[in-house]
Amino acid sequence: MKNPFPSISCILLLLAFSLTAADDSANSIRLKLETLKIENIELKDTKLSDAVAIIRDLCKKADPGGKGLNISFIAPKDDTGKTLDPVIDDISLTDIPLKDLLRYVCEATGMSYRADKFSLIIFPKTMAGDKMETRTFKFRPDAVNPVEKK
């Protein structure tokens, strides 16, 4: 007997494939988090924004594929809503796994981190990290006016 709903089967198959692809990219980031080792890092009186840039560069250097990781952070805010950039007093480490380095950096700045399917996100401990989600929006290229430099 023929399946009366062939399109439903196709939709379910595509949905399963897209979920698997998303899991693969998240697993890839988690694998890099576990396996990348940073040879040497010294952070003394370093702003978190600068430390993230340094760690991003060191990840690219340590990655055999040369890609590294996309690491971003959500800056904490004070009681008045002013954005803060926490300072790392002193961290000096050699031959350390990336996950441990991130743990030390987060402890020193009152932050936390999590692996997303596209990147590692560092965020304030006061935020509900398990409730954050990344959304992707597609739009036509002609929907945005190009910015011209003068």
The CATH topology of the domain at 36-131 is Phage tail protein beta-alpha-beta fold
The order of strands across the largest sheet is 2-5-4
Looking at the overall shape, the CATH architecture of the domain at 36-131 is 3-Layer(bab) Sandwich
* Main structural class: alpha+beta
Distance between the first and last residues' Cα: 67 Å
Outline, from the CA principal axes? globular
Count of helix runs: 3
Poorly predicted regions: 12-23
Mean pLDDT: 80
Computed CA radius of gyration, to the nearest angstrom: 20 Å
Largest sheet: 3 strands, mixed
Task: State which percent range the strand residues make up.
Answer: 15-25%
Percent of residues in helices comes to 25-40%
- Record field, number of beta strands: 5
Element order: H for helix, E for strand: HEHEEHEE
